[in-house]
Amino acid sequence: MTSNNGVEADPKPLASNKQHMDRSRPVPWTQQWLLKLQRSAGSRSGGWGVLLLGCGITVLFLWLLMRELDLAAFREALTRLSLQASLIALAFLTMGYTTRIIRWWWMLRFLDPQVPMGVCVWPFLTSISLNNVLPFRIGDGLRILGFRQKLKCQPMGLAGTLATERIMDLLVLCGFFFLGLLGLPEGAFPHQFSTAAAALAGFSMAGLLLLMVLLPQLVRYAQHLQKQSSLKKRQWLAAILAQGLYFAGALSIIRSSSHMLVLLMLSLISWGFEGAVFASVAADFHGHAAPLAPWFALATGTLATLLPSTPGYIGTFDYFAAQGLIAYGASPEAAAAFAIAVHGVLWVPLTSCGLIYLALQGTKR
Q: 0.85 exceeded by the pTM?
């Protein structure tokens, strides 16, 4: 599984106007991949329509967040975030993303036991960074395609690890959401959001169980097809089956109870640290909040990022994170300031790390 037909070792410059292109100056390989991913995403039917829809949804939720605020009280609330709380939150954020990288490395070792943990750091951080500034989940595409040679894994194997990440994250976030909901009186939080979260948790659990039951049968069937002599005449189908097996190989980690337990533990730890980021910031805005309030805001804000929006989840995250804190008694002004502050604490360091890496290392393989 570690063999790779990777990216070309000597990338050629990409430019639309070759008359003005300096042929002796190579374009960074990361820029090449980003150009390819952007063209592919933008050429999909309705791709730009989805982006426009996301922009509209962002504007809607920003309006919902701000429409009834006392602006003077809101401005005053924004000044409450202290340097001490910011540094504590940054420390928890670092620990949380270190745990996520360890989790991803542990999944990659299921495909290649020799992969070092250090090689996983920058592919992970740059994917988060680019998802924060570019549409169509281009950061995920770069992690799967742009770093496959460095990681020595097949693209669909990497895609399988991302799918496993998403499943585990959804399960943990839904758990935090329903735990927080238990501490609220009836009707304190919109019923529609609770219903959507219940459906999401149900689909995640059902999908997980289906994978555990059906994955071995699907793998055996694909392997049977690979042995058919008629497949040699259809190389495209053979390639699809091979990549499908790499994807299934990555997903098969969830079929082992011991591996599943480790994944769940690492997911709980990573999201626990991120909840501590929320708690550190919330202490400056709503110090007398119930202990579950920041983790409930974490769940509501993060689950809302599944809605279409602009890159960085502007509007959707902020509105629902604020609603999570309001449900526990915070004023709308304090909750809105909290949501914007915690969004900045999450967005700025992660985005800066990834973009700086791309700027400094973009020409290196």
A: no
